[in-house]
Structures are given as structure tokens and as C-alpha cells.
Write a structure and sequence with these properties.
Shape: globular
Structural class: mainly alpha
Strand content: under 5%
Radius of gyration: 14 Å
Helix content: 55-70%
Number of helices: 6
Number of strands: 0
Low-confidence stretches: none
Mean pLDDT: 91
Largest sheet: none
Length: about 120
């Protein structure tokens, strides 16, 4: 049996990335980012870091400002040449967006863990 409570944030997010449907019911970018937003708010309410600093970290990678929240910035990074971000995803776009999301989250959480508070 897997003990989710024993995982640190990076391990937990990686676990969600391997089995998103177990947490969201539907394996879609919108469902997964909604789940992660709720997770982050719950973690923050309970004294954890959640995804604090993620938006700013993503903006550094983007290289310019954006009015979007972190889910939208991830899409800007995923589809940099798109004139408009997709609102409905093809299966290939869905897979690409989710893979990019979890790759970015892992890099963010690894960097945050390596940086002292």
C-alpha cells in the first residue's frame, strides 16, 4: 500500500503525474490543474508551501510578463508558437500539456527543495 501522507510535495506531485485519473476522474489538463490548485490551497491552509512561487518561477522561464495564472503560463510555455492558447485540446495537445506541466512542476519543486527557506 502506498502511503501518500509520507510523501514530500515533490514525490506526491510526481505520483499524481503518473496516475492523474486516480485523483481527477478525467485525465484532462483542466481537471489536473484544478486538482493541483485545490491541493496548493489546502497545503497553504495547513502550513505547507503548496505551489507558492510557481507563477513567478514560470514567468522567469517565459521571459516576459503574462496576465495569466500559472495554468495559463504553463500552456504558453507548452505552445510557444501558438497565436492563441487552445481552449479545447486534441489528444496529442492534452498529452503534451500534461507532460510539460509535470516536468515543470518537478523542476520547480526540485529547485525549491534545494534552496534554503
Amino acid at each position: 500500500m502506498i502511503d501518500l501522507d509520507a510523501m514530500d510535495e515533490r514525490e506526491f506531485i510526481a505520483f499524481v503525474g503518473r496516475r492523474p485519473g486516480m485523483f481527477t476522474g478525467r485525465v484532462t489538463y483542466d481537471a489536473v490543474t484544478s486538482f493541483l490548485t485545490g491541493y496548493a490551497r489546502g497545503a497553504a491552509r495547513n502550513g505547507g508551501h503548496g505551489l507558492d512561487g510557481l507563477r513567478e518561477w514560470l514567468l522567469q522561464r517565459l521571459g516576459h510578463g503574462s496576465p495569466l495564472g500559472w495554468p495559463g503560463i504553463v500552456l504558453q510555455l507548452t505552445f510557444p508558437d501558438a497565436e492563441q492558447l487552445p481552449t479545447e485540446f486534441t489528444p496529442a495537445q492534452q498529452e503534451t500539456a500534461l507532460r510539460t506541466l509535470f516536468d515543470l512542476l518537478d523542476a520547480f519543486l526540485a529547485e525549491r527543495a534545494a534552496t534554503p527557506d
